[in-house]
Design goal:
- The protein is mainly α.
- It has 13 helices and no strands.
- Helix 5 packs antiparallel against helix 7, helix 7 runs antiparallel to helix 13 and helix 9 runs antiparallel to helix 10.
- It has one domain.
Length: 274
Amino acid sequence: MFIAATTVLAKALGTTSLGAPLHPIQITHGRFVFAFLALCMTLPAFWRHLNTKPNIGLHIGRTSLGGSGVCLMFAAVAYIPLSDATAISFLNPVFGMALAALLLGEKVGPWRWSAAAIALTGALILLRPGPDSFQPAALLALGAAFFLGVELIFIKRLSGREPMFQILLTNNFIGCIVASVAVIAFWHPPTVQQWIALAALGALMACAQACFVNAMKRAEASFIVVFSYSTLVFATIYDLVIFDVMPDPISILGAITILTGALLLAWREGRAKL
């Protein structure tokens, strides 16, 4: 729910909804800055948890991959329907599952691979690979999926070594520094409405990160990431209610295919734990 809301705000900021469109890098900069400020406001309540030396290498890798993925996602939603961009970005669990097996030694059985294959099929439907219907901007969402999939491995490794709040604070602090340098070439004075949207985007992203990192602490990455597919439901609702974008038959088919893969895995995992 939180992640879908951030893409809604990114779409509004990247189009003319709130003023002159902001560059994706500037939107990403606002995401890091305001997420860091939101976390700093809660610092007194979590200060006692900052008792572990941060693994700077893992944090830099995670922040670089996540920042790149989010930036590409913000760029994609400015050009294609929110629900399509969100669905395509759901390929990140496919990358994440493959890397979890290779790098983390997690057992990814036939049910998980089948669910991933079904989801991949749905994403390919949404990519509309025909010469007349292919949307080049969809490749931005595909790139976002790859970077975010690799980021999952860094999050999983960090979640087993450091407290959740420390991971979030360090990630957003590094992101602030990197994004503040990168945004210099793309800075455009935001309108009052855009400042408000940037602040809301950062706060919502901090909430989404907190939920996700806590989930990663409690279960295997290859299982948790599939539940991010529920983002598609919220993205479709937001797209319809806010932007008056009705999914076309291809979008509906692709989304249903992706959700089928997610529900298959959720059902199987639930049965396996009985």
